[in-house]
Amino acid sequence: MELPTSISMSLLLLFVLFTFSCATNFSHSQRDFLQCMSPVSGVLHPKFYTPTTPKPLLIVTPTHVSHIQATVTCSRSHGLQIRVRSGGHDFEGLSYVAHVPFIIIDMINLRSVHIDVENRTAWVEAGATIGELYYKIAEKSRTLAFPAGVFPTVAVGGHFSGGGYGMLMRKLGIAADYIIDAQIVDVDGVVLDRNSMGEDLFWAIRGGGGASFGVILAWKINLVSVPSTVTVFTITKTLEQNATKLVHKWQYVAPKVHEDLFLRIFVRDTENSSQPGTRTVQAMFKTLFLDKTDKLIRLMQHSFPELGLVKEDCIEMSWIETIIYFAEVPNDFPLDSMLDRRLYPKKYLKTKSDYVKEPIPETALEGLWERVLEEKPGLVTIILSPYGGKMEEIPESEIPYPHRVGNMFMIEYIVSWTMEDHSPESEEKHMNWIRRSPRAAYINYRDLDLGVNNKGVYTSYKQASQWGIKYFKNNFNRLVHIKTKVDPQNFFRNEQSIPPLLSE
């Protein structure tokens, strides 16, 4: 097939840039590389700023789809791998690091958001953050929303393709449930939409990780309705204030209570005010209710009176204001803070996820608190996010994201530390603290401890199943067959990409 003139010119330009990069790459200093990275979407994890981190031969910041088509075509012909970075939030750095010659496609310039209020839809390019999406929605309407994540700096390219859950999950489901069209550049450099890619590939990229199948350009999404006024509250209880029994009771309440209520828990250590000089554990109940305070009080008095919620604990606000409230930033930050891609300081971190189907006994919770206190102060966060509601109604095979019926809640374990406190010895200690084997895992909380693909082109189904089944359960098999159909030579690959089946 003859390429259009614009793509041919882009190929020529990319080849010149690539040749120059190859000739000068190893003469660039570490500072040059970091300066090159800083204007684009950035890197979440400072461990990838080290001199030993593999560097790309080229960072492409496309302003037009033809630049991506050219990059794919040129990279494939030269035997280079591609890493696609939308927001730089891959916890294991797979969107911007590879141990083979590679090129980064940074989507920072492809970030437009077009809201259609009348039809309650939006087209959002892969480089846009969810904060930018939320802000654009709120500019048009205070009663439209989208059920994606909590942290505004996460970009939609990766977030939606892995599922994308947030505070509206129990009421409405997750982000990928509301994708109605998409644009993707495939292995041949062809731009596909839902109609031309077919329903199998469209199914795969909505929760199966888009980077295994191509370069996601944009999503078309259905927007959702929310009340003009919602209610939030945060109540914190320490172990000395009966936190263990409250968390234990929460397990029976949060997944079954009315779906308008999302009652989340953050577990951290804190100073023990009753015994100065010692530490204790606190459980922070952070909650969104899709209605007003009076109704929330009645619901909590009926379902969870032990928490002791009173009217003074509650704050009424619009849905868009809750984004700042739950974003782990000071509540006096203005709404346009969610447009700041550098809203959070860079930290070293490791995260793991797991899904809970049976209540955790009080004795096991007490053991977990002991583990929290084993780490240095302020480094550990454990987040408990309740399921139920809408998540119980959607079949696990509807899209690749399978964690639906039967899950009471998800646990996210996080250990993080500052650049100043980092050393190889401290990193090993923190990693040893968090290492555990989960029953299941969330693909957007990437975890290479679960297993990795071979460094070569092909990995067996059995080997990839070590991590694939935990992320996708029975949907992994269908994902592998779709990968075999659309990318049999496994051009789009990384340490945990979906592998094609080996030909006989």
Summarize the structure.
The protein has 504 residues and is an alpha+beta fold.
Structural class: alpha+beta
Helix content bin: 25-40%
Report the major sheet. 7 strands, antiparallel
β-strand percent reads: 15-25%
Per DSSP, the total helix count is 15
What is the 3D shape?
A: globular
Kindly state the number of beta strands.
17
Strand order, biggest sheet? 14-11-13-12-16-17-15
Q: Nearest-angstrom radius of gyration?
A: 23 Å
Distance between the termini: 29 Å
Question: Can you put this structure into words, describing what you see?
Answer:
The chain has 504 residues and is α+β, with helices and mostly antiparallel strands. Helices cover 30% and strands 20% of the residues. It has 15 helices and 17 strands. The strands form four sheets. Strands 14-11-13-12-16-17-15 form a seven-stranded antiparallel beta sheet. It has a five-stranded antiparallel beta sheet with strand order 4-5-9-7-8. Strands 1-3-2 form a three-stranded parallel beta sheet. Strand 12 and strand 13 (279-289) form a beta hairpin. Helix 1 crosses helix 3. The chain is globular. The chain starts with a helix and ends in an 18-residue tail after the last helix.
